[in-house]
Amino acid sequence: MSAGSGLVRNDLILREMERELHDLCQPLTKLQCGLELGQMCGDEASLMEAVEGALVETATLFQGIGVMRERLVREMGRGVDGSEADGD
Amino acid sequence: MRILVVEDDRALGLFLQKGLRSEGHSVEWVGDGDAAVQHATANQPDLMVLDLSLPCRDGVEVLAELQSQFARTSVLVLTGRSQVEERVRCLNLGADDCLLKPFSLHELNARCRAILRRKIQFASPLLRHGAVEMNRMDRTVRRDGVEVELTGKEFALLEFMLMRNGECCTRAELLSEVWKMSPDSGTNVVDVYINYLRRKLGNARPDGHASLPVIETVRGEGYRLCSGRKSVASVGMGGRVLAGIAPPNNHRLVA
Predict the structure, then answer these.
(1) Which of B63, B109, B204, B238 has the fewest CB atoms below 10 angstroms from its CB?
(2) What distance in Å separates the CA atoms of residue B233 and residue B243, rounded to the nearest whole number?
(3) Structure ipTM
(4) pTM for the complete prediction?
């Protein structure tokens, strides 16, 4: 692989990371704001609602982290030139 | 202040709406760019909290449209994208501030307060109708130059009425805008607080003489501010407007 195509690959990886980071931001914002709102209201119903909402958002965050982890494993398996490393 | 939240994620939009309402703002929420422009055209909010990733018309397009037509509306941009260039672009298009996701509700509230503070500094912080003057910056109220101490809710109620500049405010409106309660919640809290305001604003004369009322009852409708000063026009108003007369059940709160 040439130096030029290596740069292109790095650029693609960065873009992908940016997108994945963006996908984590939305559920994390909802998680944070939902919990803060529950705390601000303070009553039992609001706290329960906040906890239930938080569990939904953490599930989304788990998925996002799963996608990032898969890609990390894939990229670590490649050589510095982008070729697939041996499975052994 | 009137705030419009533009966020396509319903759950987050409602969180932001509730969080900003807890600060005493009047907050509406819409979920796409077209609705944002329509709402801004019709209502000209003081502040728009604008997410960039929107259906129909994205946040940057909304911002461009808004700045060309409604320079009075301040804009706080929300974005999950990391590029500095994008935030610079938004600021160059007229946004007042950008907040990067994920963020805390407390930070959002603080940034909104800062924007509105700056806005008030450039606009006049004074609201005045007849004998009553309110300074929204230092949160003081004066009747004929005499300072009157109000609670937070009394202040919010008077502020809403001052912004209506003598027009009638219905009980339903006051209940919904000042208390964020449903108009059919069956409470007389509005009447009770109007009575508190009348008492405080009526006792503000330094010479000890009884003051003219500053809040009129509009029978069957609600209340409005009047000048609180003697004038020819105030004589012979007939029975429609009952100056200073509150409904009989307004001394105790009915939940």
Answers:
(1) B238
(2) 13
(3) 0.78
(4) 0.61
